[in-house]
């Protein structure tokens, strides 16, 4: 925003045009707009505070003493209470809030804090998205009871299941994330909850486009009836009904699977039996647990490669318990994916040497825009020159998530300066996320994200849906 702006002339343009201009401003520019004029203030508020984050308690980061943690909890609760009271008392402010995100890390009743949240949400007439991270609470049930009409045209809700929610009351949702949080309020009747989940999904058959569902509810969702479902995420999935997804999910464009331990073998069997299924698939994510004792062999990786060979893949992320040699059929297939823009590869191998790096550079496209690499585990031996050779292969990268914690004598600054062909804007490196700022002659590493932001990262934090998708379901240090 120009400091020489003539305030007297702002009224010569209609507010709608100013709104179109201001919405592209950076957060710092939006904050500056708050003190320019009443018009600019009102317009900036719509974008600065359309999403509100509320914290109950705090995460317990490593290295923080119990006393410091208690002070952080008290500070977060105080700030959260102030925000909620302001929403409840200022209708002109409440009307601009469209999304509320709760970070709940307290176990116990905490009646006062939760009642403040209930009162505030009841005032949010334009609320379209409600997201809950952390410990489940009976407050969720009250919120849904108060807001059964949550965004009828564009609903988006992420809620904990272990909170006795009146699930059948929620309708007209576009996006639904059903999480599983173990706490003192788990459902007394698991079979009844399974029925409620199924009834809730069926009540949203005509509008639901995206579904994230966790074990044990993966067995209960009626995929055959979800005609408009295009994004499906199965978390901690037992996979005993995974064949149903391949048989009846031909409309799916994106599929993410984080299987339960010891279930990946069944998935590979289904993939090998149905290589032509899911013809519209363009995004796929598979995360195998490091604790899984089953290891895919070369024939399994060849079957996986054949499955993708017939798809128009744009985003692909596979973390598997394989070494570089075993993954070769998969790596060779990547060169045939002409529209691939987002790629994640995770391996488990005792070593990663020059020949392994050549396998990557020979087959992985150079021009992908987002990359996630995990080249082993804590004991993997990786040479610095091997990593720098591999890193130099990529051109035009804008986001990277790199886990190479055992590489000696390599720093983030060294990694960034070693490749001038990239346009990196954000990098997650060995457990921390750093924004990058570019000048004509230099690249500066900004302040790392906070632990809370790193843990609960969302599309708004990344500013890019592909980057959030690539990091989804991972801890940053994985």
Low-confidence stretches: 137-142, 151-155, 181-188
The total count of helices amounts to 18
Largest sheet data: 16 strands, mixed
- Count of beta strands: 18
Q: How does the overall form come out from the CA principal axes?
A: globular
- Fraction of helical residues: 25-40%
- N-to-C span: 40 Å
How much of the sequence lies in strands comes to 15-25%
Report the average pLDDT across residues. 79
Structural class: alpha/beta
Kindly report the spatial arrangement of strands forming the biggest sheet: 1-2-3-4-5-6-7-8-9-10-11-13-15-16-17-18
The radius of gyration over CA amounts to: 24 Å
Describe the secondary-structure layout:
Layout: H1 15-22, H2 27-33, H3 38-48, E1 51-56, H4 66-89, H5 91-94, E2 99-104, H6 111-121, E3 129-134, H7 139-146, E4 155-160, E5 173-179, H8 190-203, E6 210-214, E7 231-237, H9 242-248, E8 254-259, H10 264-273, E9 283-287, H11 298-309, E10 315-319, H12 328-334, E11 342-347, E12 351-352, H13 354-363, E13 370-375, E14 381-382, H14 384-391, E15 399-403, H15 412-417, E16 426-429, E17 432-438, E18 443-445, H16 451-455, H17 459-462, H18 465-471
Parallel strand pairs: 1-2, 2-3, 3-4, 4-5, 5-6, 6-7, 7-8, 8-9, 9-10, 10-11, 11-13, 12-14, 13-15, 15-16
Antiparallel strand pairs: 16-17, 17-18
Helix pairs in contact: 1-3, 2-3, 4-6, 6-7, 10-11, 11-12, 12-13, 13-14
